[in-house]
Specification:
It contains ten helices and nine strands. It is α+β, with helices and mostly antiparallel strands and 359 residues long. The protein has two domains: 2-116 and 289-358, no CATH class; 132-221, PDZ domain (Pdz3 Domain), CATH 2.30.42. The strands form two sheets. Strands 3, 4, 5, 6, 7, 8 and 9 form a seven-stranded antiparallel β-sheet that branches. Strand 5 (158-164) and strand 6 (167-170) form a beta hairpin. Helix 3 crosses helix 6 and helix 3 runs antiparallel to helix 9. The longest helix is centred in the C-terminal third of the chain and has 32 residues, at 226-257.
């Protein structure tokens, strides 16, 4: 079921992204030859007008084949060259290239807003305190091989109570949890909620300053009215976009500095599938919020000026504006092909690492 849900989520995100390119190209009168979800071989398809619509077998991507996006003689000088992407004005090319990214951001805004309207589980430490219900402490991350990891505590678990010695605190705050751990002289018992299931775990804090290896946040369910949901959704979408962009810039900067361990921070389709399954177990609202974050990450990743990504193609357009002539098609096409090959290789490597982690 988790795999099916992940494939549905992936297909929707790809559809939204490619729909942006498709619609903007159509609006500008640029010919669109194919709209595809997944990579070949083809499962089934149909043709409407000049465009072939395909659903392909490999569900790890998708594409819109826009006439002249990869320039050749026909698209530059052929009988239909006036409707070619390569012969469109530079501003139209830029809009078409960025429209997929814009659609992913708009889609994330929509999902976050609906999540708020349904009742969103969100951090309330800085805002929403007066609107939140069912407030509790959530585990955000679990350090590998820590006492929490060895006992079975998971990311997303909500801490309902903590006990050590004669001290027992129901519905503890973050400070009460930290204090109980730091002052513990014996086993610590943690009562948790995971989805709709509850349980208790035993562990022993370690270290000079005693800890159990988790990061936490105070969360609660925030339910807003329809219009307020979209207003707050816009604010949160902006903040998350800025945060993701900043994190991506830091990652790229670290890669150029040659920092080790960066690849271990990346998650591929297998890892994301597991997270989608975990998010779905926490309710529809939480799943919507999680998919919104994937959509924003996809948008920012595509903005990176790397060949084969939308940002790389936009960079080529900007270079052509600056040098006032067209980059030789053979050079642009080869750079995009090499970039695509590198991205696929990276995805396969990360997927392999995710599979290894499962065992």
């Amino acid at each position: 079921m988790t795999v099916i849900l992940f494939l549905i989520v992936l297909a929707i995100l790809i559809f939204v992204h490619e729909l942006g390119h498709f619609v903007s190209a159509k609006l500008f009168g640029i010919r669109v030859d194919e709209f595809a979800i997944g990579f070949p071989p083809k499962v089934f398809g149909w043709k409407r007008g000049e465009t072939q619509y395909n659903l392909n077998m490999i569900p790890l991507g998708g594409y819109v084949k826009i006439f002249g996006e990869d320039p050749d003689e026909e698209s530059m000088n052929g009988p239909d060259s006036s409707r070619s992407f390569v012969n469109a004005s530079k501003w139209k090319q830029t809009v078409v290239l960025l429209s997929g990214i814009i659609m992913n951001i708009i889609f994330a805004w929509f999902l976050i807003s609906i999540s708020f309207n349904l009742g969103s589980l969100t951090s309330i430490e800085d805002q929403y305190k007066d609107k939140a219900k069912d407030v509790s402490v959530m585990v955000l991350s679990v350090l590998k091989d820590s006492p929490s990891d060895k006992s079975g505590l998971k990311e997303g678990d909500r801490i309902l109570g903590i006990e050590s010695g004669k001290t027992r605190i129901p519905n503890p705050t973050i400070l009460e949890i930290q204090t109980t751990i730091a002052e513990s002289e014996s086993n610590i018992k943690v009562d948790y909620l995971r989805g709709s299931a509850t349980g208790t775990l035993d562990m022993v804090a370690t270290g000079t300053v005693k800890q159990i290896g988790i990061s936490m946040a105070l969360v609660g369910t925030v339910k807003l009215g329809f219009f307020q949901s979209f207003y707050e959704g816009a604010k949160l979408t902006y903040l998350e976009t800025v945060n993701i962009a900043g994190g991506l810039c830091s990652f790229i900067y670290g890669a150029f500095k040659g920092e080790s361990g960066l690849l271990s921070q990346m998650t591929g389709p297998v890892g994301i599938a597991g997270m989608v399954g975990q998010a779905s177990s926490m309710g529809l609202s939480y799943l919507f919020g999680f998919v919104a974050m994937i959509s924003l990450n996809l948008a920012m990743l595509n903005l990176v000026p790397f060949p084969a990504l939308d940002g790389g193609r936009v960079l080529f357009v900007l270079v052509e504006v600056i040098i006032r002539r067209r980059i030789k098609p053979v050079i642009a096409n080869w750079l995009n092909l090499i970039g695509f090959g590198l991205l696929i290789s990276l995805m396969l490597f990360i997927t392999y690492k995710d599979i290894v982690k499962l065992f």
